[in-house]
Specification:
By secondary structure, the protein is mainly alpha-helical. It has 2 domains: 5-85, Arc Repressor Mutant, subunit A (Orthogonal Bundle); 89-153. It has helices spanning 5-20, 25-36, 43-50, 54-66, 89-120, 127-151, 155-164, 168-172, and strands at residues 41-42, 70-75, 78-85. A 3-stranded antiparallel beta sheet has the order 1-3-2. Strand 2 and strand 3 form a beta hairpin. GO terms for molecular function: DNA binding; DNA-binding transcription factor activity. This is HTH-type transcriptional regulator. Residues 22-80 form the HTH marR-type domain. Keywords: DNA-binding, Transcription, Transcription regulation. It holds the Pfam family MarR_2.
Length: 174
């Protein structure tokens, strides 16, 4: 696949952003390439296009499949596995958010619940410290509950809510 300068810049930037979000640069670049690609690509083609080691491509493809951001495809007449990225941006956003919720938020909520429970049984804990732990637990729980409700809305409704922006305050009062 031949990359244009704009495509190269997009892929390089996506790799930089991925590393800032805690995702391997190669994983992010492969995701960006597959997102831009007009057709499914096989691992050798990905490695050649991005000038990345074939073993790194294989590992990265497995990680992207684990995040459910790419899908394995077969092409008639070709025995190799081909890969295609999710092109629906809302689906991609919700997939990433769900994965991060499971990997990061769920364990945090478990720990916070235990800290609040343990802290409530400790005589030496300052009341303000316990309150702050409870406030954090309540905040993250509310945020998680809000996300659960929002993520179940139809895509069209999500787009309308996003476009409303701050105007949504009119509906809930000031």
């Amino acid at each position: 696949m031949k990359l244009t300068p704009a495509m190269e810049r997009y892929i390089l930037h996506w790799g930089e952003m991925g590393s800032r979000w805690g995702v391997n640069r190669s994983v992010s670049q492969i995701h960006a390439l597959l997102y831009l690609a007009a057709r499914p690509m096989h691992a050798e083609e990905i490695a050649e296009t991005l000038n990345i080691a074939r073993s790194n491509v294989s590992t990265s493809l497995k990680e992207l499949q684990g995040w459910e951001l790419i899908h394995l495809m077969h092409v008639l007449g070709d025995r190799r596995d081909h890969f295609e990225a999710t092109h629906d941006l809302w689906e991609m956003l919700l997939t990433i958010a769900n994965a991060r919720k499971q990997r990061e938020i769920a364990p945090t909520l478990t720990t916070l619940r235990q800290c609040v429970l343990d802290g409530s049984e400790e005589d030496a804990i300052p009341a303000e410290s316990l309150k702050r732990m409870q406030d954090m637990l309540d905040f993250i729980s509310n945020l998680t509950n809000w996300y659960e409700q929002i993520s179940k809305l139809p895509k069209g409704t999500l787009i309308k809510i996003m476009k409303l922006g701050a105007k949504v305050a009119k509906f809930v009062g000031k």
